Amino acid sequence: MPYVIIFLFSTTGLLALFHPGLFTAHDIWHNVARLYHYHHAVLDGQFPPYWVSSMAEGFGYPLFFFSYHLPWLVGQPFLFAGLSVPVVTKILLFLPHLLSGLTFYLGAYLTTHNRPASLLGSLLYLWAPHRFLITLVSAATGVTWTFVFIPLYFAGLYLLLTSPSRLAKFLLSFGLGGLLLSHLPTALTLVIPSIILAIPNFKKIKNIIFPVLIALLISAFYLLPSLYYSRLTLASAYKEGGFAAIYQTGFINFRQLVYSKWGYGPFKSTAKDGEVPYQLGFAQWAAVILLAASALYKPNKLKLTTLISFIICLFLMLDYSKPAWKILEKFISFDYPTRFLVPATFLSALSATLIYQKNVLFLLIIPLAIFANRNHLRVNEYTNIPLKTYIDSEQTTNSHNEYFPASASPALLDDPAPLLDPPLAYTDFFQNSRSLSFSVSSDSETPVSLRQVAWPGQHLYLDGREIPAVSDQLGRLSLTLPAGTHTISTRFLPTALIKLSWILTLLGVILLGINIKSEVFESEHRKMPPNEVRSE
């Protein structure tokens, strides 16, 4: 019965996604193009994809070195089944909403062993303003998927720190791995709540080391290249100001967390003066306030750590936390403080689970959530834009082109460029996600630059023979073209580091599989009658 209720609440909340066509949203253009490019890179033989030769005005772009992978991986079976990119885009927004209700219920039940309390928290997790903002206003696909894994991660972490088991190890490994592959910046917001939860159980901290290692191994195919090669991007070059300082405009007021007028536009100069609604939700606030009262009246570790973590998440979204962000800026580029609304939303739902009693007062939280979110269930405007328009309009799918190579001139993206500089007539042109080739004739030996930037893994060929991948002053691949007719081609091939990351991911998957097999064996062993167990 709980699963039916969760399904009904999930579907009812996102009925807007069942309308034909797409809709206007902050990231919808980015994510339609990302799904399209990911699928075509897979079709071109890149699995998983890293480089997209045809992006960035044809200069190439290391999009999937740095952009999350998990949603696009989930989308591949749907695309291979014949569904269109727009339809799969909406599936990838609806599916995590449904799954997150189920994973919260599972995680909460394993933590509290209370089915009604777990269901209460699950429904509050689904019907939260920030969930509707992320899905229907922003269409932030990666962030949407993090909501699936947060409950599994925290359930595994809590159980390993209190009553360790193989199941807890699996939950932590699977949950953390999913988070890292869904949206790394959001995953980082969970560090502080994790530390707060671990402090009272510090003596058992060793229990989480191996599961965390497995999670890092599973996500190594993304994390290792992303972290290592990020130093070569424009984002890394912005050490002072620029991309690294975006967070300075992202602080909000406390009143916005209590109530924000629902809107669909982005914020203007700062998060305080735009149309983005940052409210936590009246029902969520009610749950947290009741948790605070309960923690004072009848405290326990889980209630106190949940409450403290929630307060810190709120603090980090407000102006008062700027000194802390100044320190954080020295170590990591973190874009928006309001990303802490994701763990705050989870913690408020967990609060409802922890304070549940067989009392009508607590059941009123759900009607309050439904009533308070009644105007949050619509999209701004439905559209019928051709897919080609989405693809052609997205240079890089990043608003700041922050993954463009720092060694290349950003001015290359200002206008369409010829294939060769200086321009020469060419034939037999071919380009896909990983390669470029064409034939060209020259009357004399001529230095030329290609419409492809240099990047680790980029290889340059002349008449089928590899030549040194030299770059010019603008960061473009260049060569000296001999007189006559020749074939020039480029091809992206996995670097040694990428190949190492594949091995590590395979190792992580094997270790996770062993953990699952051991848990199944132990579960069956526990179900055996005592005499059969002894006979072994």
Distance between the termini: 38 Å
Whole-angstrom Rg: 25 Å
Quaternary state of the chains: single chain
Largest sheet: 5 strands, antiparallel
Uncertain stretches of 5 or more adjacent residues: 532-536
> In total, how many beta strands?
11
Backbone shape: elongated
Write out the strand line-up for the largest beta sheet, numbering strands in chain order: 4-5-11-7-8
- How many alpha or pi helices? 24
Q: Classify the beta-strand content into a percent band.
A: 5-15%
Give the number of domains: 2
For the structure shown, list the relevant keywords.
about 525 residues; alpha+beta; Immunoglobulin-like; 24 helices; about 55% helix; elongated
